[in-house]
Amino acid sequence: MSERSSWAAGLRGGWLITPAILSYYDVAFSQANFSSANLNGVSTVGSHTYNGWFLGTGLETALPFFGKGWFARIEYRYATYKAANISEVFGTGAVRDIMNVNPVVQTIRTELVYRF
């Protein structure tokens, strides 16, 4: 399964380590849609949307050598989603085994930001 789309709404709080470097933590409600998956070429599980939350931490720094308003950010997020029961469908159309799926996604992202 792979994550097709997600969104989150939450809070971020942190402190300035120096006047140009911000360290922060964030927490949020999150929702993600995961694609269907082919299991051993014999059966599939359908796509599904899950609700959950994430915790994250990161650093943001000003980039004065690019000009005023430019920042770089690096962030780690751990997201977990509420388990859901999903049916396994075989190529013949038969449905078997309801699987309990509980996705967990860990990401590291970097961003170049310009603030007006």
**How much of the sequence is in beta strands?**
over 45%
- Placed side by side, the strands forming the largest sheet appear as 1-2-5-6-9
Mean pLDDT: 89
Q: How would you spell out the order of helices and strands?
A: EEEEEEEEE
Query: What is the terminal separation in angstroms?
Result: 38 Å
Class per helix and strand makeup: mainly beta
| Number of H/I helices | 0
Largest sheet: 5 strands, antiparallel
Contiguous low-pLDDT stretches (5 residues minimum) are none
Explain what the structure shows.
With 116 residues, the protein is mostly beta strands. It has one domain (3-114). 0% of the residues lie in helices and 76% in strands. It contains no helices and nine strands. The protein has strands at residues 3-18, 21-34, 37-39, 43-45, 48-62, 70-81, 84-90, 95-101, 104-114. The protein has a five-stranded antiparallel beta sheet with strand order 1-2-5-6-9, with no helix packed on it. The chain has a four-stranded antiparallel beta sheet with strand order 3-4-7-8, with no helix packed on it. Strand 7 (84-90) and strand 8 form a beta hairpin. The protein is elongated.
